[in-house]
Specification:
The protein has 218 residues and is an alpha/beta fold. The chain contains seven helices and ten strands.
Length: 218
């Protein structure tokens, strides 16, 4: 499913609406909701999401990936999320980056082992990466739940990422894309699964691509 928006602001509005609906639905059915957040420009949707829910009880907030920096570092996805999302009474599950990449990935995998995400929010880089799954990296084809990443082509070099199997086990997946610089790669992603483009390997039966006109038209 592709949702076309005129502007980036409309993308973030739609993303927030999808996340809010998924959280409400999951709490109604299961009594709780599990959501994986993303870093990068996708945090813009979190400013809008907070006020959409009357309360955040029984909402568990996870991460699709994290940079291996202190959680209060300016590069931290957790810091960005907590600065943009007002979610009183939610349960935050930051990646324990103080353990180092390998141990943090192992600990996060253990914590997530019995959790099925209700919705996973993902962004996409101009190279087609999503989460910290980069083209050509062995993590793209790896099994398991959560893995360390070294020598990332984007700084910081050390990261932790959920695997494609874990992301694709989510009940719903959102891929938010904005900007003309991403249009050539987004066209390839929409054309079908391509091992060279990790974002194209997200489960299309569960995926909603939310993109602005620039990303869709170039």
């Amino acid at each position: 499913m592709v949702t076309r928006c005129a502007t980036p602001d409309e993308v973030w509005q739609r993303v927030a609406e999808v996340l809010a609906a998924a959280i409400d639905g999951a709490r109604t059915i299961h009594g709780r909701a599990h959501i994986a957040l993303s870093g990068g420009s996708a945090v813009n949707s979190l400013d809008l999401l907070g006020p959409m829910l009357p309360d955040w009880r029984q909402v568990h907030l996870w991460y699709g990936d994290e940079r291996c920096v202190p959680l209060d570092d300016s590069e931290s996805n957790h810091r960005a999320a907590t600065e943009h999302l007002t979610a009183p009474e939610a349960t935050w599950h930051p990646v324990p980056t103080h353990l180092g990449c390998e141990a943090a990935a192992e600990a996060y995998a253990d914590e997530l082992a019995d959790v099925t995400l209700d919705v996973a929010l993902n962004g996409m880089g101009p190279d087609g990466h999503t989460a910290s799954l980069f083209p050509g990296f062995p993590q793209v084809t790896a099994e398991g739940i959560c893995l360390p990443v070294h020598d990332s082509p984007k700084p910081p070099s050390d990261r932790v990422t959920l695997t494609l199997p874990k992301l694709n086990a989510s009940h719903r997946i959102v891929l938010a894309v904005t900007g003309a610089e991403k249009a050539p790669v987004l066209a390839r992603v929409l054309a079908g699964p391509d091992p060279e483009l990790p974002a194209s390997l997200l489960d299309r039966d569960k995926l909603e691509v939310i993109a602005d006109a620039a990303a869709l038209d170039g």
